[in-house]
Amino acid sequence: MMLYSVIDMPFSFIADTILLPFTVYQQQDSGSICTEPNIDNNTE
Q1: 44: which of 1, 3, 33, 38 is 20 to 30 A away, CA to CA?
Q2: Is the CA virtual torsion 5, 10, 13, 16 positive or negative?
Q3: What is the pLDDT of residues 23-40, one digit of tens each?
Q4: For residue 44, is pLDDT > 80?
């Protein structure tokens, strides 16, 4: 099991590095990520 983890780690790192910026852009474009601060001064 340890050998599998050692072999899989570099591939996972590369995939995360390539795919994460793309998915963040997609979520921001579709509106599921808020890009403007939500300031609520009416908290009691």
Answers
A1: 33
A2: negative
A3: 888 887 777 666 677 666
A4: no
The span from the CA of 35 to the CA of 37, in Å, is 7
The SS3 call for residue 32 is: coil
In this structure, what are the phi and psi dihedrals at residue 34, rounded to the nearest 5 degrees? -80, 125
Separation of alpha carbons 9 and 16, rounded Å: 10
Q: Rounded to whole angstroms, how far apart are CA atoms 37 and 19?
A: 26
CB 33 within 8 A of CB 27: yes
Among positive and negative, which fits the CA dihedral 33, 39, 40, 43?
positive
